Amino acid sequence: MSEPAHATACAGSDTSTGRSTVSQPIISFRDASKIFPGRGRRAEVRAVDGVTLDVAEGEIFGVIGYSGAGKSTLVRLVNALEKVTGGSVVVDGTDLTGLSEARLRGVRAGIGMIFQQFNLLSSRTVAGNVAYPLEVAGWSREKRRERVRELLDFVGIADKADVHPRQLSGGQKQRVGIARALATNPRILLADEATSALDPETTQDVLALLRRVNRELGITVVVITHEMDVVRAICDRVAVMEHGKVVELGDAYQVFSAPQHDVTRRFVSTALKDRPSPEVLARLRERHPGRIVTVGVDEVAGSSALITRTLREHGVDGTVVYGGITEVAERPYGSLTLELVAASPGVRPLPDGVAPADGVDAAVAALRRVTDVVDLGTAADPHEDPSVVRRGVGQAPDDGPGGEERRARVIGGPARQVGGGPFGGPSGMTGGNDLTTGIIDDGGKR
Ligand SMILES: Nc1ncnc2c1ncn2[C@@H]1O[C@H](COP(=O)(O)OP(=O)(O)OP(=O)(O)O)[C@@H](O)[C@H]1O
């Protein structure tokens, strides 16, 4: 794993945002397990299996995994919609193990939750939905009205207060869900596949709203998803789950740039489309006979200006033939694939002592000193792309001298042992809903 799971203080958010980078955990899982007993011939299910991790106060923490990995069960342990069968979960200093229902209601009051299917009350207006947890909590009519107005303003649907959910788009419904979850000022928001039913553009809008919830209201957000793009867009840290266990845990940028586990590599490859596939590479070689290299671009090494300067110093022309630079946790990350050709001395004088034939080799060596480089050879002498192997089955790459040190600079810590690549209730609702706290539950989707 990328990070000791037992740490009591957690690495927090991006320093460039000016937010605190270290804070105390607001949620702690300690060897937490949830085993659903077998029934008849059905075997027991270890939905959550010995998970130890901390969620830092004020961060956006992602939990990613394929279907059945245990993500939903893990977060349902946080508001005790499911109870641990082993280990413990501590929320905001309170150990939930063995807590009475009355005490649990107090803990739940500090936790909001939103769902993939929104779970709105179809018989109530938008304002009525948002007011619902306030009614349950005993707020006066006047205070409720004021709070609902404030919340609908915050989520950007003040004009929809009097319409019913059926008249709303998916994105608007989720905004109502978010407003309702925030109504009683929770300190934690759990988002269970909150954007999975939305189109890509609406997904971005809702993710931007969740980021505002985190930044402007200081609410810790735990995002469950099966989409690495969601992690890329908003998460500070991420836990990758498989078969009930956390198989990788770390800063989102670090996990993207040096994924350790096969499952993580598969997720990362779905979110980063910057590398040419073998088929694309074959076509590139047909069109570009020169030396093809893929260079990493990130906030420390490999800025395009640095790459251009390095090539110029070696009398080499570089043409971008493929690539993409995106943001991971609001920091630049990606790669460019270049065709390198020694500049003709007639066109541009070579630096002293550089012969045209040496230029490309020397430039590749120099690029390796400033960024991660995958040398794909030429059409006449093609080199295999090790990242195809690396991203597929996880062999450790040889990313050239200085690779570990470079990655350490990128992730802001000491050099690590890494095996990853250089880029390397009421009507209309289902489920059990706690009418005392206004907690809305989707019944665990089962
Ligand atoms: N109430 C339950 N009774 C029995 N088994 C359950 C129950 N809830 C979940 N499970 C099982 O626990 C495992 C983990 O389920 P969980 O819903 O936590 O996974 P998930 O990663 O959220 O999956 P998905 O993305 O499909 O929702 C699955 O095998 C599931 O069938």
Automatic annotation (TrEMBL):
Biased composition (Gly residues): 418-431
Chain positions covered by the region annotation Disordered: 1-22, 378-446
Cell membrane as UniProt keyword: yes
CDD domains: ABC_MetN_methionine_transporter
Gene Ontology biological process terms in this record: amino acid transport
Gene Ontology cellular component list: plasma membrane
A Pfam family matched in the record: NIL
MF GO annotations: ATP binding; ATP hydrolysis activity
InterPro entries reported for this sequence: AAA+_ATPase (IPR003593), ABC_transporter-like_ATP-bd (IPR003439), ABC_transporter-like_CS (IPR017871), ACT-like_dom_sf (IPR045865), MetN_ABC (IPR041701), MetN_ABC_transporter-like (IPR050086), NIL_domain (IPR018449), P-loop_NTPase (IPR027417)
Domain named ABC transporter: residues: 27-268
Keyword Isomerase listed: no
Record's keyword terms, sorted: Amino-acid transport, ATP-binding, Cell membrane, Membrane, Nucleotide-binding, Translocase, Transport
Start-end of Polar residues biased regions: 13-22
Annotated function: Part of the ABC transporter FtsEX involved in cellular division. Has ATPase activity.
PANTHER family: AMINO ACID IMPORT ATP-BINDING PROTEIN, METHIONINE IMPORT ATP-BINDING PROTEIN METN
Family classification: Belongs to the ABC transporter superfamily.
Protein's recorded name: Methionine ABC transporter ATP-binding protein
Record organism: Xylanimonas oleitrophica
Organism taxonomic ancestry: Bacteria, Bacillati, Actinomycetota, Actinomycetes, Micrococcales
